[in-house]
Amino acid sequence: MNLHYHVEGEGDAIVLIHGLFGSADNLGLLARSLKEQYKVISVDLRNHGRSPHSDSFTYQALAQDVLNVVDQLDLPSFSLIGHSMGGKVAMAVTSLAASRIHHLLVLDIAPVTYHVHRHENVFAGLQAVNQHTLHKRSDAETYLSQHVIDPGVRQFLLKSFAKLPEGHYGWRFNVDGLIANYATIMGWEEIPPFHGRTLFMKGQQSDYLLPEHREAIQRQFPTAKAHQVANTGHWLHAEKPETVNRIILNFLQTA
């Protein structure tokens, strides 16, 4: 599995890992801030963006994909920043290469299994679009809007609606593969304790990181620190980019 990725800047390496339905560009505001001081590697996870599709979609496989990228770039050490599902991937990398990781930053996700299906309407909208051969993004939004009410969510999803090699437009991510693996995406298998520098960032209004997750975090990341970003939801890095970027830069500069 050779992931699509792009590299910006020079310095110590930082890998940015997007969440479900995303792509390397989703953390672009953060990449622009970091590339002034760091070498920033933004990846498309398998089944997303321009990376290959696969029926296998476990966190161990995703973590190995990321590790393969840093090995291809011949990077002996690196830091990881992951949002949502990408945060789980970043956490899983610690079980494969703990000694190589400088800093781990997890944005608004916990190392636990989530039992609520959060994306039924999204999957319904994606499948509705797939039932048609389309040549315009506006047509895709028409079908998507029948299931996804929030215009912001629609615009986020439509970033991955593009012209395919076959000539028509379609989703870059593997819709069927993500549906088939949704239980795994929402799940989690506990990993050995990682004692490196770790920061969990929570959006104040988000319910992805809750007090009931503290014990699971402490078991797996015993030295972790936490920071809550006021007046933000799950997309804290997009809602308050300057604040989040400042917090991240301060943490990366801790020895």
TrEMBL record:
It comes from the Bacteria. One of its GO terms (molecular function) is hydrolase activity. Residues 14-246 form the AB hydrolase-1 domain. Signal peptide: none annotated. Keywords: Hydrolase. Pfam families: Abhydrolase_6. This is Esterase. It comes from Photobacterium aphoticum.
